[in-house]
Amino acid sequence: MKKTYKYAVVGLLFLFLAGCEDFLDKREDSGGLTEEAVYSSYESIRGFLDQVYPKLEAYNTFEGADDGKNQRTYVGVMADEMSATYNKTVFAKFFSGAWLTTDKAANVTEIGNGSNTPIGKALPSIRIVNRVIANIDKVPLTGEQRNEILGQAYFYRAWFYFNVIKRYGGMPILDKVFAGGDDDIPRVTYHESSAWMVGDIDQAISMLPDTWPDNQYGRPTKLAALAFKEMALLYDASPLMQNDLNSVQIKSYDQERAKAAAKAAWAAITYMKQNEAKTGVRLATADEYMNLFWFPDTELKRVETIWWRRRIPSDSDRSKTARAFWLYADMTGGTGSESFAISCPTLNAVNMYERKGADGIYYPINDTRSGYKFDPEHAFIDRDPRFYNNILIPGDTWGTYASGKPYYIRLWRGCTAYNNYGSSKHTNGRQLSGFMCRKFLWPEANYRHDQTLGTTKPFLQKIAQTVFIRATQLYLDFAEASFEATGSATAKVEDCGMTAEEALNTIRNRIGVTDIPSDIVSDPEKFREAYRRERGVELMFENHRWWDVRRWMIMHTLFNEPYPIKGVYFDPVGSYEDSADGKSGTRPASFTYTVFDMEKEIRGFSNMRNYWYPLPQHDVDALHNLQQNPGW
């Protein structure tokens, strides 16, 4: 007999109570499954569990709607990496810093709890996973099949829970399917939440396979779980997470927790190295590096990818990803909001890249040894090679016109492509930063390259994928954890075969950047700046920066100016042929550079309360035991 369930669902915390009723309550002859059918076989329970996979964030691809509007702004704008040109950017509410809502389910980008938001996807997914774990013994499974299902279930539960607590702080332990009457449970501290979550990750490590068949590639593996564990432990050791439910104060790292994170990161690195032949995962070489961040149709694997969301987008979404996120209107051939809504790297981000000095050593640009000057002969010459992989500036050659003539990035003041942003109804209320993101692009992704293909086909040659963890992060996490555990860049955590300095140099050397200068290594404050800068450069635009500046508790100082986001005006020196016909165009001989405040890029995050997101007030009012975050 088919079972049905009734629940009193009261908002945020109980979204996870309502996630799977549609699947269970549909009759088999209408395309759904009864509960008995769900737990009847390996295939059926795996299909039930697989419902959570599309709930994973897909921030690197255009996907559906957000806050009632199409997604036209990239997540890189959340901190200081990028600026948004679209007047109706879905991040407007987020930028304000006024995050509290009284709505029961608000689809407000990032900070809401409606079904289109990360929180609104995470909690129902946890409910589905809890049902799988609770009912696994009903299913006839081999030992291998049981491990595959449970390993994924524990991994997913931990991952979705992590996406909740890194926003809200400690939350109730969601370890079962709650029935009516036992659901008003109190929050616990971040440390308690993390400890329970890491227990799930340990279960996943013990059960998940080393690899999956090619047609299943994208499911979590043992290495993904090992990497997730060290990442979770690093967050747990970080300053923000040392606060309890009643405080948001500047804290230091917990050294013992940092030591645990370093050991976990070393275990993940060791496993990765020992199993490279089996998993295919390793650090990319310099030659491979530029191809890490986009994927051909026929090759969804990249050597550094550890944990990612596999998605083959429609032609429409694939085209919109390039046009709405990365390309300015002249390169898209369109006049609509998707064509104009580029997310631009900021000068704040550009300034993270080091410069090679006269001695051949790379230094931060605020170090006089770098030889950095803000002029055409120095500003963007001899920078860290990753700068040229990640950033385009006005006048850079990027592919060709259909005629074979070079196409130059046309974001200097005065040219038609630039001026169009001041007159378009989609962007006339915001500002271009002067820079363009190259990291996820290829030169043929340009309408001007072959206009006969129309405004869609030029952008279909490659696929963007959302990568959550890649091999590089293991070394960056290790460097941070090891240094914060020992207070030294050259000391080793017990049972670890590497120092923080060696970990960072491994990442730098493989791309052609020299070792960190010895005087920086020996100075704890300078080395902390160095590992954070290295992380900012290597993981730029990969959805880490926002979480990092929060857990480090530097956000309130990073955004304490009225206009903290900076751009550059590139003004032409000499004549040039404009590209009004879209078929040819030249660049001026040189440019002058002027830094300006991006006054439209408000970041209202200087209040300490913004380190944690507020819980929807509707839920706090409805539940006796649900405590609101401090300051909200």
Automatic annotation (TrEMBL):
<keyword id="KW-0998">Cell outer membrane</keyword>
<dbReference type="InterPro" id="IPR011990">
    <property type="entry name" value="TPR-like_helical_dom_sf"/>
</dbReference>
<dbReference type="Pfam" id="PF14322">
    <property type="entry name" value="SusD-like_3"/>
</dbReference>
<keyword id="KW-0472">Membrane</keyword>
<comment type="similarity">
    <text>Belongs to the SusD family.</text>
</comment>
<dbReference type="InterPro" id="IPR033985">
    <property type="entry name" value="SusD-like_N"/>
</dbReference>
<protein>
    <submittedName>
        <fullName>RagB/SusD family nutrient uptake outer membrane protein</fullName>
    </submittedName>
</protein>
<dbReference type="GO" id="GO:0009279">
    <property type="term" value="C:cell outer membrane"/>
</dbReference>
<keyword id="KW-0732">Signal</keyword>
<feature type="domain" description="SusD-like N-terminal">
    <location>
        <begin position="22"/>
        <end position="228"/>
    </location>
</feature>
<dbReference type="Pfam" id="PF07980">
    <property type="entry name" value="SusD_RagB"/>
</dbReference>
<feature type="domain" description="RagB/SusD">
    <location>
        <begin position="304"/>
        <end position="632"/>
    </location>
</feature>
<dbReference type="InterPro" id="IPR012944">
    <property type="entry name" value="SusD_RagB_dom"/>
</dbReference>
